[in-house]
């Protein structure tokens, strides 16, 4: 059995795509997932499942959510080892920053620097981003809501063909904790 996190993109934001967490837990339990729990209202669920392909679990959950709630939701599923590796590979000094300053955008597939070649890093300083394994790390000293770089990075053409969903550093760390063996 493996602990996973499901990252749901764009739910419960601004009154759109309302998905009550209690109903999500019930749905996931009905799919046969064990030890289901949600974290916050913004689309994180952790669960245990027989060792399976994370993409297959994401596809199953995506289909079940659309069938039950009547709207599509992009879902990424990642296991503890991956989440821990993303945390450990952070290129910014996470311990010295507040959670609002550091974010990770989880991506459905690996990306190369060429995808971001038309973004001038110097134009956005002191904000910065770095690429990781199916992840993009963003340092935004004034927070995501005020970040001009985050605005550029969130344009649909930047992540065309990918599922991309962003979490602040507190959530990144909490998902590692919640998916740890024995959690």
UniProtKB/TrEMBL annotation:
Question: Which residues belong to the signal peptide in this entry?
Answer: none
Going by the entry's taxonomy, the superkingdom of the source organism is recorded as Bacteria
Q: Name one Pfam family in it.
A: DUF1697
Instruction: Check the record and name the InterPro entries matching this protein.
Output: DUF1697 (IPR012545)
Supply the name of the protein: DUF1697 domain-containing protein
